[in-house]
Design goal:
alpha+beta; Lipocalin; eight-stranded antiparallel β-barrel; 8 strands; 39% strand
Length: 198
């Protein structure tokens, strides 16, 4: 999925390059050789674009003024809480799993996102996360591959495992967001997760 509108961003890069080119043209009193002039302008343009892209990727992309027309993904940064419903069964007692409270923290820039989820018994870290956007079919999803590490005292019945979770990003009123997803693990368990931002 594209996190940013590619056509708009290419136009912005072209405009920055042209501005630098014309500033250089009017700053020099003596005419330079054409190749040297073009080379200097390109060097300065690349430097300005790289610095601008870094600042935009880390900070500016969250500004509301860039939403929808340039930045296509939501800002999920922050602390989240919710519930997990798993089909896991305790092999010793044969009891089904009750609803599990979960706390999650998401750290995001425009180009990267990581998710950490914690329950009373384990911590899960995303190893790979990616957005999927299909505006024609009204799809906005976040998919994460994660590694889950149960606390040492429960390792006999709950081993370290890997899983995949696919969240539907549900945009509610007043810019609120809910994450509602399904997960699968390599220990053959499945379940659902629902999170709301604190």
């Amino acid at each position: 999925m594209k996190n940013i509108n590619l056509k708009v961003s290419l136009w912005i890069i072209l405009i920055i390059a042209l501005i630098v080119f014309f500033i250089n043209y009017f700053m020099y009193e003596k005419p330079l050789q054409l190749l040297s002039y073009i080379f200097n302008s390109l060097n300065e343009s690349v430097s300005i674009i790289a610095i601008t892209a870094y600042i935009f990727d880390k900070y500016l992309w969250k500004c509301k003024m860039f939403k929808k027309w340039l930045v296509l993904i939501p800002d999920l940064n922050g602390s989240w809480e919710g519930l997990i419903q798993s089909d896991w069964v305790n092999h010793d007692t044969k009891e089904k799993c009750k609803l599990i409270e979960i706390v999650s923290s998401i750290k995001q820039s425009l180009s990267h996102i990581s998710c950490v989820m914690r329950t009373g018994e384990m911590k899960s870290n995303s190893t790979t996360s990616v957005f999927r956007l299909d505006t024609d079919n009204q799809i906005l999803e976040l998919s994460c591959v994660y590694r889950s590490e149960p606390n040492q005292n429960v390792r006999k019945r709950s081993q370290i495992h890997y899983g995949i979770i696919v969240f539907d990003i549900v945009e509610l009123k007043n810019d609120e967001i809910k994450l509602k997803g399904n997960y699968w693990t390599d220990r053959k368990t499945v379940g659902t997760v629902e999170l709301r931002r604190k």
